[in-house]
Amino acid sequence: MHSRYERRLADAALAGRRVEIRLRVRRFFCDGEGCGVRTFAEQVAGLTARYARCTVLLRGMLESIGLALAGRAGARLATTLGLPATRSTLLRWIRALPDPVIGTVTVLGVDDFALRRGHVYGTVLVDIDTHRPIDLLADREADTFAAWLREHPGTEVVCRDRAGAYAQGARTGAPEAIQVADRWHLWRNLAEHVEKTVAAHHGCLHQQDTIAPEVDIEPGAAADLAKAAQLAQVQGKENSALVERTKARYQAVHALKGDGKGIKTIMRELELAKETVRRFARADSVEELLAKPRAGRPSLLDAYKPYLHERCNAGVTNASMLYREITERYRGSRGTVAAYLAPFRALGGAPPATAAVLKIRQITSWILRRPEDLDTDEALKLKQVLATCPHLDATATHVNTFAEMLTARGGDRERCHQIPLRTRIRAEHGTLGGPIGTATSPAAGCDQTVFGAVDGLVTNAALIAGVGGGGVATSAIVLTGLAGLVAGAFSMGTGEYVSVTSQNELVAAEVAVERDMHARFPDAEREELADRFCSYGADPDTAVRMAAAVSEDPELALQLHAREELGVNPNELPSPPLAGGASLVAFSLGAILPLLPYLFGVRTLVVPLAVAGAALLAGGTVVGRLTGRPLLRSGLRQLALGALAVIVTFGIGHLIGGGIA
Predict the structure, then answer these.
(1) What is the 3-state secondary structure (H, E, C) of 335-357?
(2) Gap between the Cα atoms of 262 and 259, Å rounded
(3) Angle in degrees, CA 540, 546, 548, rounded to 5
(4) Whose CA, among 41, 499, 551, 656, lies 20 to 30 Å from 480?
(5) pTM for the whole thing?
(6) Exposure pattern of 490-520 as b/e (b: 16+ CB <10 Å)?
(7) Could you give phi then psi for residue 97, rounded to 5 degrees?
(8) Spatial distance between the Cα atoms of 7 and 51, rounded to a whole number of angstroms
């Protein structure tokens, strides 16, 4: 024994008082020749630790507080409990704790998180059975995730989002594991689409203002104050920067799309993201894109608008004064109040406050929540919304059905409903026909033949009626009809030839752009293919494998991308000579019908026009069958249009012929 010395150890509080243990311990010599320590102190098991100034019990208590509350909050609670410690001490002890041992994780959850949004991302790994994070990775690359899985074998299920990197990492690091889509991302994706649906049908909840926004309002128009104020609000929304930008982008995207340019070409010229260009290109009208900006978001000022209307009508229009009157509970800014009152000050008053139209996010929240979690007022308002718009009613029904399947995990029982859904998705998004899209199916070719024949029939029947109305000889009518047949047929044939040739050249240019993108960014194109397969109904793991298999054949991948983004198959482009010849023959077949009676010796104009009318009725019936419209109705419509053309040209011919005579 070398000596003895006294240690002072802080211990857990007793009856709210700080406790200090004074312990006399021994110091010993170390006789080992290879040991660098000459003396060492005696330790009491369960009470002391090397260099520690507190007991093991106290340190354990403070570590638990630090783990639960971190630095500042933990230090405040510890002081209240009679265990004084600084926030730095708590954080230092937390960092000194050994990492928990990661055992076998049967069900592993993986997702990314942002260290710096848009620039630096990491990966968090969660044990789904215990719902606790188990590790963090420095990035979200497939190789990093695969290496972690190889270091920790035993994972049977990987629960992830639809990111291609995690799919590739799981397939490489744990090839036997089953990959499933986590319910949080599924519900989030559903929520985004429900919000878009509510925005698209938000106009069903209120009557659209019939006053044009361009009408000027006189400041003294007190009689129509309500309409004038509503108009002022409409003008404010229409003139907002977001609405103006949306309109400009929609026009620019559709102008380039009308020129036959593809998604990626538009993306480069306008310097927009691909998904942004797709959203604008697929919109049927700009109104579809403006639904959310016009509907607006819930405002802190909504609850105070009736009071502001009342005070404004009482003659108080000073924004600063009104802001001070509501500032006791209002937490918004003065600028918001001033901007809302500006139209009313210009009009000299405010309309009576009306019930505000429900906001998009509010309705979306009600649809996505459990029915039993809605209070009575919310349930009643949602019921009124669904009764007003059948589209939102159908959406709510689908959301409830999907929620039941998601929470009960009964997807295997709903498999019978997936096939029709995939069929609808393919029908809606499988072929995005655009300005350069071409019809290659037999039905499409039949359509063109029928329409070409009807065009030739109407054209030549009207031409013969016009010449016959002028009182010319029968030989002149026949000669004019033959000349019109030849001229019209060659015009249609050459026009179709030039049109198809131009379309093929545009497709070739777009395919060249796609080929260049595949060569420069193969990973991005492969992920895009996987997302596309997922949208068709494939599960994420299968979609990634399909995308990888397709990407091994560059020509096949190029063909699929061309079908999706251009709406055509590069290997099945129509032949310009064949298209021109088919158009020429179809026009000739229709144009020869009004001439047939003359070729068989008929000398009156009535019989050829009757033959043309019967042929028009039959042609309209065929068109109705192709388009799915009622046959008789379609035939009569075609007959009426042809008769109108014949009557007009006959009248013109009769007037001109009579004047010359």
Answers:
(1) HHHHHHHHHHHHHCCCCCCCCCC
(2) 9
(3) 105
(4) 499
(5) 0.44
(6) eebbeebbeebbebbebbeebbebbbebbee
(7) -65, 140
(8) 10
Q: Which residue has the tokens 């090397």?
A: 50
Instruction: Find out whether 191 and 368 touch, Cβ atoms under 8 Å.
Output: yes
Distances in Å between the Cα of 521 and the Cα atoms of 164, 272, 450, 489, 551 are 14, 17, 45, 47, 12
What is d(CA 591, CA 482) in angstroms, rounded to the nearest whole number?
Answer: 9
Predicted local confidence at residue 437, as pLDDT? 38
Nearest-angstrom CA–CA distance, 620 and 641 = 10
Strands, sheet with 157-160, edge to edge from the N-terminal-most edge strand: 132-137, 120-127, 107-116, 157-160, 178-181
C-alpha to C-alpha distance for 501 and 325, rounded to whole angstroms: 71
CA 362 to chain centre: 19
Is the four-CA dihedral 323, 324, 330, 335 of positive or negative sign? Answer: positive
Q: What's the CA angle centered on 377, arms 331 and 350, to 5 degrees?
A: 50
Could you state, in chain order, the average pLDDT of each consecutive group of 10 residues for the chain (661 residues)? 80 83 81 73 82 86 89 89 88 86 87 85 90 89 91 90 84 88 84 84 59 41 50 56 80 85 82 81 74 60 75 77 78 78 67 65 88 86 86 88 76 43 36 36 54 80 81 82 84 84 78 72 72 65 75 74 65 79 84 82 81 82 71 81 84 70 41
In angstroms, the CA 425 to CA 434 distance is: 18
CA angle 611/617/618 to nearest 5° reads 90
Question: Are 199 and 361 contacting, i.e. CB atoms less than 8 angstroms apart?
Answer: no
Q: How far apart are CA 584 and CA 154, in angstroms?
A: 70
- Give the β-pairing of 157-160 and 107-116: parallel
Angle at 135 between CA 129 and CA 139, to 5 degrees: 125
**Dist. CA 312–CA 316, nearest whole Å:** 5
Q: Which residue has the tokens 């006789």?
A: 31
Instruction: Report yes or no: 105 and 112 within 8 Å, Cβ to Cβ.
Output: no
d(CA 322, CA 334): 9
HEC string for 376-442: HHHHHHHHHHHHHCHHHHHHHHHHHHHHHHHHHCCHHHHHHHHHHHHHHHHHHHCCCCCCCCCCCCH
Helix (H) or strand (E) holding 236: helix 225-238
pLDDT at 333: 80
Single-letter amino acid code for the residue at 182: D
DSSP-derived pairing of the beta strands 157-160 and 120-127 = unpaired
Residues in contact with 332: Cβ distance below 8 Å, sequence separation at least 6, in sequence order: 299, 300, 301
Both tokens of residue 631?
Answer: 């046959």
Within a 10 A sphere around the Cβ of 383, how many other Cβ atoms? 14
| Cα–Cα distance for residue pair 70/64, rounded to 1 Å | 9
pLDDT at site 206: 58
